[in-house]
Amino acid sequence: MKQMVLTSHVSCAAMALAMALATPAMAQQAAATSDTPAAKPADDTLGTIVVTASTGARTKLETSTSISSLTAEDIKNFDATSTAELYRLIPGIQVAGTQGDGGNSNIGVRGLRTPTGGSPFVQIQEDGLPVVLFGDIQFGNNDYWTHPMPTDQRIEAIRGGTAATLASQAIGAVLNHISYTGRNEGGYVDLEKGVNYDWTKVNFRLGSSINDSTYFNIGGYYDVGHGILHAPYNVSNSYAIKGNITKEFADGNGYIRMLFKVADTQEPTYGGCVSSARLTGTSVSNIGPSALCDARKQAPNYSVLNSSVLYADASGNVARQPVNGISTNEKMLQFQTHYDFGNGLVLDDNARVARMKGNFNVQFYGATPTSGAVPAGQSLIYANGPNAGQTFTGAYVSASSAVHTNMNHMDHIANDLALSYKHDFGDLKSNLKLGYLYYSQRIAEDWHSNSSINEATGVNPAELDLVSGLNGTGNLLSAGGQTGFNQGWNQQFDLTFTDNAPYADLSLDLGRFNLDASVREEIFSGSGWAQGSTGNTVSTARITQIDPRTGQSVVTALPVLGYDGTVNAVNFSESATNWSVGALYKATDKLSVFTRASHGTRFNADRLTNSTPSYFNPNGTLSSAGLANSAFPVDQYEVGMKNRGGLLGGHYTVELTGYYSKYSISSQEISDTNCFNILGIHEQTCIIAGKYKDLGLELFSTYRRGGLNIVLSATYDHSRVAASQNSPFLKSPNIPDLTYSALVSYNLEKAELGMSVNGQTSTLGGDGNTYAGSALFGLFAKYRPVKHIQVGLDIYNLFNSYATQGAAGFVTGTTALVNAGVAQGRAIKGSVRFSF
């Protein structure tokens, strides 16, 4: 039955894709028989002026770049459970997993991604500047810091080579959250409340004029609750406020704008749990809940019996830390200046200073046979819970890491200054832009990863303690399931990475033809220090605890592994030249075709540190190995078409882009599973180096007729990887051949009804098996009984599908149990909004 449903979902997506591809021909046919009414500006997304990673005041139709926008309504209606999941509505963006709104998702674009996680080729910006310069900072990924806000007017997505020349460290894509900044009189306050789960959120936005030349916008939210997976305590507890005030100059030639953000967030990141599956040859199907866990409604890494863990700091002092997911603290102040000197000369400056810090406090989940987790001659007992003190006899445990990471500093200072000049030479119109970006970010962290053993069950798993004898006898060898401190991947570092990037862009408009060329010189430097661990015990912690078998106080000696590795000095500088050349032909006012070739380099940052052997010389400069692995060169080629027009009394847009890319990477991995799946070695940390090539096709299409509004997005990707420079190319794991999403809504006089879908076809896992695809459907409804009042209902995962959208792998020794990341289950949410 599940297979039939999946086939139906994929067939529907294929039909939608075929309809969108056929749209231009159908439109021409319609235009031949009748005149279609002119589209309203809101209906024509290709008429929108591009502001992200672009030059000039060109519309999407006139730009030789793949660009898509999500409006504030799209963001609201798609009802994603995380920032990364929202990006599934953008073509070309590939998100592995639904980690929860805390973040820690892997975000790729057009096959540009690495097996080591994060989003090294995708940059997330807020109002034109990145919040973190590197999307794959270990325990500091870019989706920790940026969440959809009531102040977001739209998200603008630039994919392809221009991202390499008009933004730094963003070779594949720029996703820019753009705030409301105009004279938006009025606003709203709304309340969202989980119906079948514990979660509450309050949102607000207000815009108004102060006088004829000054106006402001401000908004924010507060949310709290246990979440869709019914954690036993509050895993969401966040607030964020963003705003801006604009002062127009008296001469009417520009403005100065101050923007600010204050955020203090705590949100969960989920790791899935053990699920059932069927293996037929190398095909995995029928993935669903197991007897131990249902990942749609259970969060085993948030247990009331494991809600805090012990850890040892850099000095060996033992403290207790709550397991509360990913928390961030941001204070940002930004200034934008725009001035038109006349005669085609325009100045733009965008500056920001930010203080940022946070914590990563997560109990990872990974089911494994009990026999493999318990040394010979020892056994397990329940450390707490209703069975405290009894011998554990279950077949499976979760033997993974309890991680506490302090992100002590993620501060940055940035300034992007640009001067543009327009001039007409008869029929030839030129636009030259010269700019300079300065961005400096401090990354200071200390990691504490402790081996931990817990029940493999989904609801409030208990901690399991090792004892020295069989059948629950002997001395305690662990405390709260932890057998020691800093036993996994542990580092501490204080690093500053600085990017100086002069850039230039020249575009020539020859009427129907548009040519552009851009170049960016990346001058990148790093300074500071980093230290890892040799894996040796440096001290012993004596933990006083209650033996659950006797109720008596005992002292348990546990090893403390410290930061005893060599302190690596970091003091280096590199440079690279990025370029992009594009051409566009505007065949008609409704149809344009374009092509582009680009080359860019993305530098490696914190993942260079504490490698074995070291990538640094004693004086902090890069060694020969460091030089070979410090940058990711990427070549990209694109060809595409953009079309708009009338169809069946409505208005459509279609953007279709074919792409090819090739690149190489070398990056540090801190997962034993990935080290084994890719390199065939059992190491807690390893360096994964390889080369990739990618061929694909992406679609973004809209249609609006009266109250009917449709947004379609799809990406076909044929990605290949060679695990080392001399290995053959094979199919890339965890990248589906086809991903798709859609929003369909109908607006009546007082109501709006709609549905969303996002899904993917089957995916090759890191273990060489192919995992069945999945689809998620959502439903939303809004009703306005009186002026200024709106009530709403949103249903996420309407059919309660057991949707695996991230990495999965079989539990050791089994062919019927998989550790899998699974989308959250059916979630019903009600809302009330008061507009003014």
Can you put this structure into words, describing what you see?
By secondary structure, this protein is mainly beta. The protein has one domain (2-835): Maltoporin, Chain A (Beta Barrel). The longest helix has 32 residues, at 2-33. The two termini are 49 Å apart. Residues 1-42 have low confidence and may be disordered.
Topology:
Elements: H1 2-33, E1 66-71, H2 72-78, H3 83-86, E2 93-96, E3 106-109, E4 122-126, E5 129-130, E6 152-159, H4 162-165, E7 173-179, E8 186-194, E9 198-211, E10 214-227, E11 236-248, E12 254-267, E13 273-280, E14 283-289, E15 308-312, E16 318-322, E17 325-342, E18 345-363, E19 367-369, H5 370-373, E20 379-382, E21 396-409, E22 412-425, E23 428-455, E24 464-467, E25 492-510, E26 513-531, E27 537-546, E28 553-561, E29 567-586, E30 591-603, H6 624-628, E31 631-647, E32 650-669, H7 672-679, E33 686-705, E34 708-722, E35 730-731, E36 738-747, E37 751-760, E38 763-764, E39 770-771, E40 774-783, E41 789-796, E42 804-810, E43 817-822, E44 827-835
Parallel strand pairs: 4-7, 14-39
Antiparallel strand pairs: 1-6, 2-3, 4-5, 6-7, 8-9, 8-44, 9-10, 10-11, 11-12, 12-17, 13-14, 13-43, 15-16, 17-18, 18-21, 18-22, 19-21, 20-24, 21-23, 22-23, 23-25, 25-26, 26-29, 27-28, 29-30, 30-31, 31-32, 32-33, 33-34, 34-35, 34-36, 36-37, 37-40, 38-39, 40-41, 41-44, 42-43
Keywords:
55% strand; 6-stranded mixed beta sheet; 25-stranded antiparallel beta sheet; mainly beta; Maltoporin, Chain A; disordered N terminus
